[in-house]
């Protein structure tokens, strides 16, 4: 294929023929011939019955678009030759009134693309050839019905005449005759209508309907190519990252008819069940029908197999019993195709007068459950290798089977939409504050917490809720990140939502929902529904476990989880995490007494006051860490020292401030002053991370003490050596790490000498600022590991606040300025280069430096593929993403970018 | 020198002798011998009378610190040899009771450093040698006075005995004798006191005062080296970027005495007047005195020259008349030193019994006015080259002569201190709002505008005021940047200030200042003073003009100015700007009707509404641009399209919101909603810069139209070709520039075809995001020039909000984490690498791409030196910094890093 694709030059071959047991193309030539054309060629070559035809390559399309809709000089001659070849195989002539060749014209690019001209059937019919068709088929009604269908289709898709104008004429014709069904119209009726169609078209366009078949063909081809650049197609490509220069191919193929009588049929099938993955032929057919009838839903399609008939409790006969011979041929085709393509195929076929013709084959879309079963079984059948099985599952699709989903049969009333921030479906009664959510959950209620946006103060309510809905914020807003970490469903940034907290209700346009009323959210789809919608709980199949074990065997990178609480840590372990890559210590500071002590610390006038408050927090932190170390029992745990700016721990409402003042036994004016002093214009770039540690070393000192004491405690309990990895956040310089490492080392040696134990630990840093990435060589002199904080690195490299980007980032994606949300999939060109630089310089200084990533991108397959290329040691993501990351990491190692066409 | 310095090895030479007309070192060996030692050696070599001595090198210090305060093995032997050499020259022996050699021990590093052990004189005296000294000098009182002084000094600086304990014993002694002056004590009295001193010391330290001269010497040397690592010295070094490993040298030198009688004297002098720069010998002396007496202020020093005596209206005789011979020798020394060192020297000398001895020479500190005159005159005298003259002026020192300064003779009461945000001294009455400042200024009052922090809404008040004082914000806060741009004095971030706007007063601790009361600020020093302090207006000397013309001839980079209004642009031109590197269009939006139209635009519901509001702004923008183009008459002008987030244009106070609603004829609730919607968590990383242009292309369209129409108008008036440079801010991708360039190009071709004129213009971008720097190669495909926005680039590369950094950045500097404020001097290692990368990649794509910088660093000499290394075409800074930048750019071209020791 590579050789042929290289031949892009003015001397190109523009047309590739197929049919009659051979073909000029093959399945490997999808770039040049499109998916449909390449597969038609392939089927011809392997001896399957394919109506002859030819493909105009995607290069013709590119030529056409680049040179003002003109064609290469030699195209016409090539097309004439190819057409002649069809005529020869079929034994009919294009435009021959006595024995006309009819063709279909279909677009067919590398990726299927709605918005483009699709299909014209029966091309070649005109007032003369229709008579030939009538004679040959012995069915004048069939011939005229075909003719009028052709005119309708052609006028609609090629000439742009509106559909309803034909419908009106047909209705008028039926009224004239006094009938109600199309089937009641006879040959002459259609003939009359054809005349009226042509007149109407001429009136509309100011020119007659083209009756010359060659004229019809060239215009149809031109329409396909022109549709490549229509607005819908362009928009679709932008949204799906399809380059404009791919172009589309055009397939011209001899018509076969499934509607020439009772020995004719048409159908579609999957070589295995696309819903369950069962290795059974699965499909539907209709006797005496054209392809579109099967999918149009006018007639009820019948099952292909007896088993299918039984399973569907159908009374209509199966093909297996009606046309056993043809079915036998089709079943052979099924086996041929699976063996040849080594994957489930989605096929279309037509039976014309007892003769089977294959019209299409392509990789069959399937559910995730089916994809797992098919992949595992095909590997067990030795049809594919285990590596191929692993490569075929779309890691993102696993989300479907790891979270509850909506019952597909349920009726739903959508209230509004937001971003699909954290997958899973959840129903519950609405609570507008975290406290209320917690209280209701305490009474056994399922709760959906609804907030304008969430903050660390809401954590307990988020934990208590089944799902979270916010009016503001993006895919990496606080709500989204925390919900994914906890495995709670979340719809974020539902911009239509007006939340009125005092009135305890929310409104979308004129629909209001009060606190206590029930809603359902689908965090995978971003939908918010009224009332309770039944959900289906996930069950993990044996095939899932098998495939994941193969994936684990294949991958190089370790997969860790970002988890802050013992509950989350346990969940992470259950999902197969091999360590904790990010344990954020601040989430521990918001509960109960802790926040009181934390605030006391912040409000303290001096170091002594801070130390006394920290002394109260110490045992609680130690307990948390000890529990986490015990659960992980020797697996690595990376603990990040306090990161957020202190003002996040103080409330802002008057009555809360008074409460804080009371609790801390200080004047409320003092609290207010402190809040005012801590105010920051850009908190993201403010006094946070290790900058706090530099200003208040006593905080990090307390945290280091809690970590070391917990490690000793857990080590004694588990009989494992606990080697904590202590991570310094937001460093921009080596000096910051040196100063803080000194604090940590001092605490370590104090604890060690007091306990008479040798402490093993590592001190490393987050690389989350561009400067840190550039200075990684120097920083690595002091840091024993790097963990890339890609959220912040993206914010700073791009100058883009993830909390605020919602105002324009969707527009940026729509306009194609950014190919995808850089907070979801890593920006390889910019942020990625910083990571590459940091890895390279870090390794140069410290050969064995441990490199990982703990930003949100750690759970994104496309990003994981990039992390493999720079050789990170591990990725870390939220617990519920761990299986996705395990699979994606395996695929990355296997050097494959993604799965097959799983839905 | 290089050769000698290389000899750093265990086989090093540790001791360098000098005296007797030769020396082992020279002036080039400051790193090894310290400044003092190197110059003593140099003076010896060129034949000046220097008391013999030797220098222990800085390497001994490093050895001492690194090896637990021990010395190299061979040091003692080298020292013995050097000491013997002194003894031989002087003809006396160290510790010889009959003919004792006395020495001084002084520290002397590469840079002078307070906090270290300084000087011990008369070392070598003890109960025996003091008698020898008495005999030799024939003056027992002199001998015992010297002895007791030695004990006091030695005990204080070497042994750490507190000074006051000696004072008390002396007082007691005088009481006993019934006298009041030290001079009334006689030889025996001092002898008695010496005994008491020794007893007191022994009681304090538990060991006797060391009487063995060698013991005295080694301990003094050890004290000097140890003082290198004392806390005060360490702190000083951190603050002044002096590396710990420089170390200090120790100079041991034979004593000479200026206090042995009337044929003795001591003095200090400058080879030219350090205050005016006049080429006249300038200095003071005292007969029969020791060096410390001249500076101690106990006796009134006398003038060296008759001219000096006349100028100072002194009645005391000049040395020129008292000791004409010695004066003649000294004047010869003066000429020798200037010719030899090619710069003004600051010297110390002693006359012992009619014999002149030189004790020190170093480069003389001088005022900026003097520095200019000296440099220019020395170049005219051919003593130095013009390039050297240019290199010798500290560009930052020019600030002194470009702005009003406080009268140094005025009495001042400092209220508080802040950051020296914009130089100049200004007095005025306090106003707490911009409107009030404007109103008062309209009545002819001098006003100081005092704000917690300023915002773009305050611009008119800042313009009206003489100076600005803020309680919050750093060196690059809004107040600081705008004040520097306008040439207003500004003290920013005066953290002690409590401003109570309703009460119309500000308070520092218990001192309050009410609106209408008068204060004075010194923006160069960061001080805030009560009442009016007289100021001195700057006058620019001929020497300034001469030197600047030499600088202009020497530099490669162009110097432009950041200026937004015709007034500022004119000021920039007056200061020698060769173009406008940054014209911020948003500052134009805040005045009068403009802000009303701007707000109408922001509040509009749709594009049509926005367009109608923009239509009102168009003629005003056009007028501004036309005026600017006319003033610059063909010089390049870079206009930045709208940059700040829209919320900056909306007020936040209730009554203001109501006003805006009334003016825009909309509901106040609508205004409130809009304000709420525009709220951003991190506005610095939000919806601003070209992101606004992408969302609202009509804004940039209007601005482009105003620019092109103004260029045509100004072109017609000035008969110059105006080539506007249109700058797109905050781009992160090439796509953003492509989309906006299309808008600009379309407007250009519309205007051009309407006017029938060919328009010449460039479209470029700011590089102010790390991603943009990395993607510069791609961006340069579309951008015709880059202007580095180093403020934002520093903020994003460092993850550091300049508005918030004030909370911890000073601490970071104090702890040595950052060597300097990265918003003042560019962070070469991090931000600098991004600039280098962008320059390299930009040039690779577009060979002749124009590269400049318009961040605050454009006026910082150290940063300008860096910009020269990456080959920028120009720097752009605030108008009042233009002379500084011109000089700094010249020095950068000359490859020199800074000036000499000008103060």
How would you characterize the overall build of this protein?
Two copies of one chain form a homodimer. Chain A has 903 residues and is α/β, with parallel strands linked by helices. The first copy, chain A, has 36 helices and 34 strands. Chain A has an eight-stranded mixed sheet with strand order 15-25-24-17-18-19-20-16. In chain A, strands 27-28-29-30-31-32-33-34 form an eight-stranded parallel beta barrel, surrounded by five helices. In chain A, strands 2-1-3-8-6-7 form a six-stranded antiparallel sheet, sandwiched between helices. In chain A, a hairpin with a 2-residue loop joins strand 22 (505-508) and strand 23. In chain A, helix 7 packs antiparallel against helix 8, helix 23 (592-603) runs antiparallel to helix 24 and helix 28 (697-718) crosses helix 29 (734-755). The longest helix of chain A has 26 residues, at 607-632. Chain A is elongated, with a radius of gyration of 33 Å. Chains A and B meet through helix 27, helix 29, helix 30, helix 32 and helix 34 of A and helix 27, helix 29, helix 30, helix 32 and helix 34 of B.
